[in-house]
Amino acid sequence: MAFKRILLKLSGESLMGDKQFGIDNNRLNTYAKEIKELVQQGVEVAIVIGGGNIFRGIQAEQGGMERTQGDYMGMLATVINSMALQSALEAVDVKTRLQTAIEMKEIAEPFIKRRAVRHLEKGRVVIFGAGTGNPYFTTDTAASLRAIEIEADVILKGTRVDGIYTADPEKDSNAEKYDTITFDEVYKKRLNVMDMTAFTLCKENQLPIIVFDMDTPGNLKKVVNQDASIGTLVEG
């Protein structure tokens, strides 16, 4: 049985494709077509995208910029990515709404929970931009917060890696993949799934997380249809 309402978390870097910076239109269009399949299946889809392909607040701080200013700049980068994905979805006839945590009435609605839920119920994809609207919080935290607010069944974290491993599989050839793992085990083993604030929000609200490889065509649909062979499920 498929999940009814999901929150898909994408990294900004995933939109780069093979580029070193910015947005790869081919990657964007591929994502849009995969998301369209879910909508046609009747799944309610909300999305949060990072901004790391354009700007990262933490990197700005390391370069001497005030952290708060850098974080707000990072939030604006997520809005650029959100607008790009919105455009790609609408190009394949998927109705979308962009809601932002920082008011930008010319280009997006402000985030209002009831309105977001109503859009989802009407079959529209809702994209949440500008993080939480507050500095010092990541887009992972924004994804967790929004997922809890809209009562999503699960957070799907699309990455370059096909799940959670005992070590970084790109650096350690002996790393082993977990099919399922509990929140407490992730804490104990100090595995890097999400930042701690985001992860704790999910644990306290019993919101499961599935980490999977978004770049393999068909994986998103399989995960939504609860194919246990794809990704790693964090719950409990």
Could you characterize what this model shows?
The protein is an alpha/beta fold and 236 residues long. The protein is built from 8 helices and 11 strands. It has helices at 25-41, 57-62, 67-91, 113-121, 139-149, 183-189, 196-204, 219-224; strands spanning 5-10, 44-49, 96-100, 109-110, 125-129, 154-159, 164-165, 177-178, 180-182, 209-213, 232-235. Strand 1, helix 1 and strand 2 (44-49) form a beta-alpha-beta unit. The two termini are 20 Å apart.
Beta-strand proportion? 15-25%
Task: Report Rg.
Answer: 17 Å
Shape: globular
Q: Can you count the helices?
A: 8
Number of strands: 11
Provide a short characterization of the protein structure.
The chain is an alpha/beta fold.
Short descriptors:
single chain, 236 residues, alpha/beta, Carbamate kinase, 9-stranded mixed sheet, two-stranded antiparallel ribbon, 8 helices
Secondary structure blueprint with pairings:
Layout: E1 5-10, H1 25-41, E2 44-49, H2 57-62, H3 67-91, E3 96-100, E4 109-110, H4 113-121, E5 125-129, H5 139-149, E6 154-159, E7 164-165, E8 177-178, E9 180-182, H6 183-189, H7 196-204, E10 209-213, H8 219-224, E11 232-235
Parallel strand pairs: 1-2, 1-6, 2-5, 3-4, 3-5, 6-10, 9-11
Antiparallel strand pairs: 7-8, 10-11
